[in-house]
From TrEMBL:
PANTHER family: LANC-LIKE PROTEIN (PTHR12736), LANC-LIKE PROTEIN 3 (PTHR12736:SF7)
An example Gene Ontology CC term for this record: plasma membrane
Top-rank lineage group of the source organism: Bacteria
Name assigned to this protein: Lantibiotic biosynthesis protein
Family annotation (Pfam families): LANC_like
Organism: Pseudoalteromonas peptidolytica F12-50-A1
UniProt keyword terms in alphabetical order: Metal-binding, Zinc
Sequence positions that bind Zn(2+): C263, C312, H313
GO BP terms: peptide modification
Coiled-coil annotated spans: none
InterPro entries: LanC (IPR033889), LANC-like (IPR007822)
A molecular-function term among this protein's GO annotations: metal ion binding
Transmembrane helix among keywords: no
Amino acid sequence: MLLPVDSEKKHKIQTLIGDLVKLVESDLTSVMSNGLLSGLAGHLLFLYRASECCDDWVDEVQFHQALERLQNELAEQTPELSSGLAGQAWLLEYLNQSNSEEYDPELLEEIDSFFAAALDFTPWTGEVEMVLGLGGYSPYIARRAKQTTQTVLLDRVVTGYESVAVNINEQHTTWSQPAQSVFRFDKDDTTAPEFNLGLAHGVPGIIAALLPALQDEKTKSRAQTLIINSCDWLLEQQTHATDRAACFGSCAGDKHESRLGWCYGDLTIALTLARAGHALDKPCYLDRALEIALFNVDRDAEQGHINDAGLCHGFFGLVTIYQRLNQEMPHPKLLQAAQTWLDYGLAKYEESGLKALYSFNGVDQDHQQDFSFLMGYAGIGLALIGALDDNLDWTDCLLMS
């Protein structure tokens, strides 16, 4: 459902998108990484969506020069989603599918084969999350599976997660952050189990990464077992305390004070449960997902730890997340929450200009200009375009669809 946007607000949003296009275009030749989350691929995703909305916004020559550079440098990339091949290949398949009449199923077959070899490890020995690890291959595989058979790669993902699953009992399965993981909270005792509850780095992301395997008959049954057992485990981590600030912590056993955002928190847990509920035809997951989502609709910027604007954990990112929640579970309060954060973000921009869109750097404890998809201008632009047309088909690269 489209957000209610009057003509004056629409003009403000369109003007801001146009300004962001110019800023992102200015960074095309200087951006250091070709990656999706913080590099050239993310820039191109935003510019492509902007061109769909208005041909005049995007310099077609610059766009195609940058795209050619990305394609020419694929062989030099590391494999992961964040800065590497998995994210860049996802973008190429996204663009490949944008024109169904000209779709080329063979375009990325070499990358399919490369990933089939790269993921052929049992037990899986790398990161299990999606930014640098196994889950980050799922968006590319799922996107390819819309048009081509991807049984081998889907099997690699399911087998990898089976090989490192922690079976609490016959009904509950989860995954611990590996001892060597850069995303561990507890780096002093790396032998202690640590169950991360964020979509970016934890169990919800693993559940979301497994969902595409339900669409392939050869992986469906195994994926279903993992998804049901891990969803049931995840729901056991929810608190129902009357004084709770959130339904979930950032890690199992933590205080239930997680932020509002994509990376961590209740909202993308609710979204993952809703998607699992639809995929498995389990209304109980949808009921719990809606309950969790609605608990959060009245949390403000202070309560939600909102300190910038981007997709990862910023106010415009929340517009996209609430839109996705409303697409999965239509509810007036979810639609209103998306509208509230859109208005909040536009007010911030009117008050402070471009600095309102700067990304907060936790190391420097300062807000800084950021052109990227996950934290900066490109992602903010995508959120604003989505607020106008409700087209969030790109969110599969963040395990949100």
